[in-house]
Amino acid sequence: MSYSQGEEPIYNEITEVKAEIGRVRHGLAPLMLQLLFLILFTGVLLAFLLQVPKVPCTQDQEEIYQELMQLKPRVDLICRPCPWDWMFFHGKCFFFSITKRNWSYSLTACQEVGAQLIIIESDEEQSFIQKMNKIKSHLWIGLSDMKHEGSWQWVDESPLLPRFKKYWSPLKKRDHPEADCAELTDLGWDDDKCGTEKSWICKKSSASCSNN
Predict the structure, then answer these.
(1) What separation in angstroms does the CA of 157 have from each of 17, 93, 119, 148?
(2) What CATH number does the domain located at 87-205 have?
(3) Distance, CA of 137 to CA of 173 (rounded, Å)
């Protein structure tokens, strides 16, 4: 086949590109097969660990059982103290929501995942969530004075201790009758109308990971 001036270099470039695409596909195929094998092997391993009898019935099962027991410590390393989208701090798990809802919805959302709208129990926790607040902006916390105006209580009905009152923002409203729910701001805690939509913080105990 003959080419006019300028066509042959273009043809050669196209040929090289096609060859490179072929090499890339050829290189990806083994990688995808390895990944698929790893996923399938992990699934079979976990299923076997859950279902295999403690006393194997045959010699083949005995050998498989012993091999899987040797691999089990590696599987146990997968254990995390908190769910993947939670943060671990001082033995507790913290969830910082992305969506925004009112205070009551935030309270329920935490309860539905076995947690509480955060009760701050130490200066260390306050410092931790305050740093996170610089990323997440305003966040609901589990503090309100809905039952008695000016008498702030956590969601477990425990009173706000005097030593934590230092965390109120200097711009806090002076017990405005319509601002009954507490939020975390850049300057500390503030009160706002409970129907306002904000992100929120859930808190729960961390899981215990055991290699037994």
Answers:
(1) 68, 21, 10, 12
(2) 3.10.100.10
(3) 19
- Tens-digit pLDDT profile for residues 112-145: 999 999 999 999 999 999 988 776 678 999 999 9
Tracing tokens 């009898």 back to the chain, one arrives at 53
Encode pLDDT of 54-81 as tens digits: 444 566 666 766 666 666 555 555 667 8
Closest CA to 162 of 176, 148, 151: 151
By residue count, the chain amounts to: 212
* Token pair for 146: 């809905």
Residue 198 near residue 100 (C-beta atoms within 8 A): yes
Any idea where the domains of the chain sit in the sequence? 7-76, 87-205
Beta bridge partners of 183: 140, 190
What does the pLDDT look like over 11-69, one tens digit per residue? 454 455 444 444 434 444 444 545 555 555 555 555 555 554 444 456 666 676 666 66
